[in-house]
Amino acid sequence: MADKTNVLTFEHEILPVLTQRRSPRAYTNKPIPAEVVEQVFTAASSSASCFGEQPWRYILGNQSTSPEAFQKILGSMMEFNQVWAKNAGALVVGVAKLNFSHDNNPNNWAKYDVGQATATLAIEATELGLQIHQMAGFKPDVLRTSFNIPEGYEPVVVFTLGYPGPASDLPDPLREREEAPRTRKPLAEFLFEGAWPTPEGERYDQATV
């Protein structure tokens, strides 16, 4: 069952699972069944990629089945992320293969495609009652050393995977952020039909920063 906490409201109707996807910091350490993990990452396989390269690679650290890897990933993260991420059922590193397999030329879209695949698995996770929280606050060189990631591959994201828990489990500042209403920019701020907007037509004042 999808997580129904703090869902988004839009002026146009979209798939409910998209409104339910969020990036929580409160997690339970409930184990994630192996078949659920496989279902989530199978969803990543459905994502589009340049030349069908599928340049994404994922390193999974599961608290219950691969705790050493979990701790390695946790140790690569900035301390402010470790505080809450340590409670997630799993931590994951998203890695991009930087060159095409068919000709070894640079794949300038590899990181974009890792992002597409991760967004796709996030939706599948949401549908299954899990959530992911993607982070930039980590040290790629630590991950490269800890997992012997070879040249030609680059860690581009770390994210939690797990069952969301109560916001009351978080320290006050994080709890307040967890419970704050979620907002998104209106279409007028990012959808420009026909041409780039003139300064007079821009509406960046409409968003909640």
From TrEMBL:
Residues 19-163 form the Nitroreductase domain. It comes from the Bacteria. This is Nitroreductase family protein.
